[in-house]
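quick q for whoever's on today - can somebody do inverse folding on this one?? i tried earlier but teh output was garbage lol. tokens:
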């Protein structure tokens, strides 16, 4: 029997709250909408759900600009709705993880409003990063492009590594530590099972605020902006809070690093339980790339995670299909990558809609877009809205069962999604949804008996083949069929299973001979 903590090998389903299900009829997803779809999630076979921010927010960055860390935005419901959601999720056998955003608040947060109303050098301003000067304190740029500093009428500058409406906290102030420990306890007392920590490698900045050398711009482990040594003490404090609760509570960090070794620093026994493995998410469709990431991760990280898509990146179905002349290559590779991922030790994180094979929506009209990351590249408007289009549940036309009312969804859904609704796919045993259900059910039945390590098999070029106990996983990233390894039976294939060979863009699970 598997006695490991639930989070160590869980399948976690990310819900982008605004886009999952709308019970109020206003065109925006909400907590009661999620509650109405819990049976679907339980039948899908996931172990936990992760909610993106639902707290009060001006929505300058889709809720990642939090104005009140202890409430629910009226757009999404009430605290009573949240309590009902927690209770119902647990009744369906689902754990519930919520986002916490500690690097920055909304500029509408009472603390920042108090800072604006107070003079330079005041205790109110010390809760954020303010500096004097005739010019910006350094050359730092925002992740959303442009300067990372904005100037107030009184001449001081404040730091915002994201939008100007998202001022960075000063984590060198003990009051910030106390505030967030209290925030964690507030939600833990309401029954949540854990937290996903936004920008977890942020929080502390080099105290001298030096310029970033050009070669170190971006999410670099040794940048003066990211992964400062002091950040680890925060997670040691948080781990004590989590461990003080009776049942297993867990925290997973959004940590961008340069290597698996750097990532491992965040998941030491007294810090975070897990951290996202973005190297896997960013990998191309390549057996060589996959194998290196698997080897590096399993060698360095004791509680690995695997993820293919999330609310910040182009959906993997679309990414994998780019450059292929076969219009079905992206979906075939996406299904194959899912099966390979589920065979690996650790936890898997799914993003809503990937179980329907949803592609990125690239033709959203500019006037409908709401993502603050708008950049023009070769005449194309880019941003994250394309992966955030509301879920298609049922019916032949928009809103496809997403909303109970007549108000159009907050982002328009394409006509092509009529063939991809959950209702339609549930009735088709060959659909991507049916495949996900079979894969998750089979993984659940096997995971208690599978060891926490893999062993590579000799395999043809452009393929991955490994064993994990009696399970053999074989993935063909090449252009032609390859022989299957010796086996007793085929358990599941992402495509048409062959008797003796494995087709391109396909993964198969076999039981060893």
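ok took a stab at it. sequence:
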């Amino acid at each position: 029997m598997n006695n490991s903590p639930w989070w160590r090998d869980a399948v976690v389903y990310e819900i982008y709250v605004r886009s999952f299900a709308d019970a109020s009829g206003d065109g925006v997803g909400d907590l009661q909408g999620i509650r109405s779809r819990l049976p679907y999630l339980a039948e899908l076979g996931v172990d936990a759900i992760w909610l993106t921010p639902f707290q009060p927010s001006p929505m300058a960055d889709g809720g990642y600009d939090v104005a009140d860390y202890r409430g629910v935005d009226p757009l999404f419901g009430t605290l009573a709705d949240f309590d009902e959601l927690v209770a119902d999720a647990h009744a369906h056998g689902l754990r519930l993880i919520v986002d916490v955003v500690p690097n920055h608040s909304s500029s509408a947060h009472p603390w920042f409003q108090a800072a604006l109303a107070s003079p330079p050098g005041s205790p109110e301003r010390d809760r954020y990063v303010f500096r004097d000067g005739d010019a910006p304190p350094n050359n730092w740029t925002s992740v959303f492009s442009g300067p990372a500093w904005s100037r107030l009428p009184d001449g001081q500058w404040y730091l915002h590594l994201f939008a100007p409406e998202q001022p960075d906290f000063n984590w060198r102030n003990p009051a910030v530590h106390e505030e967030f420990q209290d925030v964690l306890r507030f939600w833990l007392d309401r029954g949540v099972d854990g937290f996903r920590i936004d920008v977890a490698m942020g929080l502390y900045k080099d105290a001298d605020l030096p310029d970033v050398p050009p070669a170190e711009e971006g999410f670099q482990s040794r940048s003066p902006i990211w992964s400062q040594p002091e950040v680890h003490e925060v997670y040691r404090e948080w781990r004590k809070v989590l461990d003080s609760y009776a049942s297993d509570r867990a925290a997973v960090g959004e940590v961008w690093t340069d290597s698996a070794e750097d990532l491992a620093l965040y998941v030491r026994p007294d810090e975070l339980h897990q951290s996202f493995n973005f190297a896997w998410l960013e990998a191309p469709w390549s057996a060589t790339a996959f194998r290196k990431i698997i080897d590096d991760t399993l060698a360095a990280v004791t509680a690995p995670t695997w993820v293919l898509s999330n609310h910040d990146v182009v959906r993997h179905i679309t990414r994998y299909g780019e450059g292929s002349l076969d219009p079905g290559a992206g979906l075939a590779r996406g299904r194959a990558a899912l099966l390979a991922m589920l065979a690996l030790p650790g936890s898997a994180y799914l993003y809503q809609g990937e179980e329907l094979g949803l592609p990125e929506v690239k033709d959203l009209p500019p006037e409908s877009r709401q993502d603050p990351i708008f950049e023009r590249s070769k005449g194309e408007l880019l941003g994250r809205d394309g992966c955030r289009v509301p879920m298609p549940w049922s019916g032949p036309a928009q809103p496809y069962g997403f909303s109970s009312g007549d108000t159009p969804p907050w982002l328009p859904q394409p006509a092509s999604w009529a063939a991809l609704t959950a209702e339609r796919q549930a009735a088709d045993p060959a659909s991507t949804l049916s495949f996900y259900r079979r894969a998750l059910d089979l993984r659940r039945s096997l995971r208690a008996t599978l060891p926490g390590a893999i062993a590579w098999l000799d395999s043809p070029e452009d393929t991955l083949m490994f064993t994990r106990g009696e399970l053999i996983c074989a993935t063909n990233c090449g252009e032609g069929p390859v022989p299957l390894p010796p086996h007793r039976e085929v358990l599941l294939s992402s495509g048409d299973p062959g008797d003796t060979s494995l087709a391109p863009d396909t993964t198969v699970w076999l039981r060893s001979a």
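fwiw The two ends are 23 Å apart (CA to CA). also Residues 376-380 have pLDDT under 50 and may be disordered. so keep that in mind when u check it
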